[in-house]
Specification:
This protein is of the alpha/beta class. It has helices spanning 32-40, 63-82, 98-108, 123-127, 141-155, 177-181, 185-206, 221-229, 239-242, 251-259, 282-289, 313-322, 345-352; strands at residues 9-11, 14-16, 20-22, 44-48, 86-90, 112-115, 133-138, 162-165, 171-172, 212-215, 234-237, 265-269, 275-279. The protein has an eight-stranded parallel sheet with strand order 3-11-10-8-7-6-5-4. It starts with 8 loop residues before the first strand and ends with a helix. The model has no long low-confidence stretch (mean pLDDT 93).
């Protein structure tokens, strides 16, 4: 078993006393409130840039500009709340204008960029000589190899951190639909071990310590211990933080987790073409029956075709964030049903300390 006193998570010159990264959750679920609180307690707080500016007055007419503005605001707030803690952002590769989001985050002074929903092949080029640490999300050894080889050859750079996101994560998932119907945890542990071992080999080869954290299905300390025994340096956890007082989502959204039963958590096909995990609610039932009319495009995901999409994912996720849960896409991880009451971030971090 891992020692009760966990080692710190060290990413270059960054050091998190507690080896827990709070996963980025858009739209509006992990903003400065949650990220700042996690960072203040010694973990790493992550803001999702996905439609981060939804509360800006000009969001409907100028979504990209609103999002760029909000990145600076939310990062500044989180850093103030963190008291010197580590604050990063999650930026999806599939985001339209991805390059602008990355540059805005770097300009805002983020410590770390975590990037998935596609392979972040150009990320080193976009951050340039900044001190911002880079953490690609991978779900397979193959994708990790592609990033390592390409970054090293093209940019003479390696990732500062690797996030392995497994099939029990929430939101959009980097797996085929059939792989999510019946999940073999033991089989995926084998893949995780392969990635950890290969990353260590790259680290030895190039003289760089590259920590690996595991995400997807992490809910309690024993989950972290399991992966740290395999050689991981820590974990990324999102779902557990939704039902905290500090989470930026509306109380009604948090309550859907508390009310959910295990059978309510289902795999859905997102309108942007990716499988995802969510709570089955009246909205999702309507979406299965036919197209839900929507207004103008909010310029979110590059794979979305507004004229063909069954519903607007931005509208559905904004509804979740503001508490209009009957008309919302309620993304969640596989353990959402385990939430029984609201918690404080401080108490969760103390459990993992």
């Amino acid at each position: 078993m891992a020692d009760k006193k966990s080692r710190a998570l060290v990413i270059g010159d960054l050091k998190a006393e507690v080896p827990v990264i709070q996963g980025g959750m858009g739209v509006g679920i992990s903003l400065s409130g949650l990220a700042g609180a996690v960072a203040a307690e010694g973990g790493i707080g992550i803001i999702s840039t996905a439609q981060i500016g939804y509360r800006e007055p000009d969001f409907d007419d100028h979504p990209i500009e609103a999002n760029m503005r909000a990145i600076g605001k939310e990062v500044a707030k989180a850093k103030e709340l963190s008291g010197g803690g580590i604050v990063g952002v999650n930026i999806m590769v599939a985001t339209r204008e991805y390059e602008r989001y990355v540059k805005a985050a770097v300009e805002a002074g983020v410590d770390l960029i975590i990037s998935g929903a596609g392979l972040p092949m150009k990320l080193p080029e976009l951050v340039g000589e900044s001190k911002t640490k880079l953490a690609p999300i991978v779900s397979s050894l193959k994708s990790a190899e592609v990033i390592f080889k390409y970054w090293q050859k093209k940019y003479n750079r390696l990732p500062d951190l690797i996030v392995i996101e497994g099939p029990r994560a929430g939101g959009h998932l980097g797996f085929h639909m059939e792989d999510l119907v019946e999940i073999d945890d033991a089989a995926y542990d084998v893949e995780i071990q392969k990635i950890i071992d290969r990353v260590k080999e790259y680290g030895v080869q190039y003289g760089k310590d590259i920590p690996v954290v595991v995400a997807g299905g992490i809910y309690e300390r024993k989950d972290m211990e399991h992966y740290m025994e395999m050689g991981a340096a820590g974990v990324q956890m999102a779902t557990r933080f939704v039902t905290t007082y500090e989470c930026d989502a509306a109380p009604a959204y948090k309550q859907t987790y508390i009310d959910a039963k295990e059978e309510d958590i289902v795999i859905v096909k997102s309108p942007v073409g990716m499988p995802g995990r969510a709570i089955l609610n009246p909205f999702m039932k309507r979406a299965k029956e036919g197209r839900i009319p929507h207004g103008k495009c909010h310029t979110c995901i590059s794979t979305c075709k507004p004229a063909e999409t069954p519903y607007c994912i931005t509208d559905a996720l904004v509804n979740a964030a503001v508490g209009n849960v009957e008309n919302a896409l309620l993304f969640c991880g596989s353990n959402a049903y385990r939430a029984k009451e609201l918690e404080h971030v401080k108490d969760i971090i103390e459990e993992f300390r």
